[in-house]
């Protein structure tokens, strides 16, 4: 059993502050929540906002030794490991009020295969 560690309350306050500050910046506290939780979150406006959010939160990698972009044809005797269940079966939405139907989604594993110009690896269906 792992011993419990006491967390500094100031550390919690700083973490909460960072999250709440983002909510305030986005105006999430300015209006009441709508009564309709089945609103269309696949509207152009919602999709544009999601795209903007992804673009603003993406982390760039340092391209040391010009490794990127990967060129599959020049990768003789080299391997790439895509690790984790999310490569093939990512969770892209929630359930209940967070449920979103996405028609144009492909898993990261297939996107990688497409980018490398190789045949898509078959996935198990439930």
Kindly state the percentage of residues in helix.
25-40%
Q: How many beta-strand segments?
A: 0
Query: What percent strand?
Result: under 5%
Distance between the termini: 36 Å
Radius of gyration: 21 Å
Task: Provide the number of structural domains.
Answer: 1
Task: Tell me the major beta sheet.
Answer: none
C-alpha geometry: extended
Tell me the series of helices and strands, N- to C-terminal. Answer: HHH
The oligomeric state is single chain
Low-confidence stretches: none
Kindly state the mean pLDDT as a whole number? 76
The total count of helices amounts to 3
List keywords for this structure.
126 residues, mainly alpha, single chain, extended
Describe, in plain words, how this protein is organized in 3D.
The protein has 126 residues and is an all-alpha fold. The protein has one domain (9-116). It has three helices and no strands. The chain has helices at residues 9-25, 44-57, 108-116. The longest helix has 17 residues, at 9-25. The chain is extended. The mean pLDDT is 76.
